[in-house]
Backbone:
């Protein structure tokens, strides 16, 4: 049995220690907001936070997350009211929407580390997240909007 803390809830899972964290989150815990994209840490669809850092859950072994704090898109806010989630909706960022949980999780770390990011900061931080629909200009605009919302008392994790 492996102990995981996901979104401030403790789970005891029966999993191979080498299982990717992604599959433990999706298949064993039942949180499906984190997506499988490529399986080789190249697209960013599977980004979650491990002790506050953005990691690719498709290549992170569940044993690495044991006893650590994991945050998924479902745990980012209780009512989908994180500044990034609000900005994503306001800017109509998603087209297909598949990559956006990973995009938002990467952007959340960026905003925590750089509350007022430049375009270059955003481009660098988000370079590892691929959007097949090409909504990159809207992603950048939404991150700037979320930074402004955060300054006005929004939630940031």
Residues:
């Amino acid at each position: 049995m492996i102990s995981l803390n996901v979104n401030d809830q403790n789970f005891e899972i029966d999993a191979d220690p080498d299982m990717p964290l992604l599959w433990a989150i999706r298949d064993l815990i039942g949180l499906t907001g984190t997506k499988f994209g490529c399986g080789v840490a190249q697209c960013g669809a599977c980004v979650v936070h491990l002790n506050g850092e953005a990691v690719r859950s498709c290549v992170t072994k569940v044993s690495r997350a044991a006893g650590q704090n994991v945050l998924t898109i479902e745990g980012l806010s209780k009512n989908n009211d994180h500044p990034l989630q609000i900005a994503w909706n306001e800017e109509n960022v998603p087209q297909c929407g598949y990559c956006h949980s990973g995009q938002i999780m990467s952007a959340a770390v960026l905003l925590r580390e750089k509350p007022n990011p430049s375009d270059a900061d955003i481009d660098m931080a988000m370079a590892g997240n691929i959007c097949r629909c090409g909504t990159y200009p809207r992603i950048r605009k939404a991150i700037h909007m979320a930074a402004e919302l955060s300054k006005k008392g929004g939630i940031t994790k």
Q: What stands out?
A: Residues 48 and 105 are 6 Å apart (CA to CA). The radius of gyration is 15 Å. Strands lie at 2-6, 9-13, 47-50, 53-56, 69-71. The first strand starts at residue 2 and ends at 6.
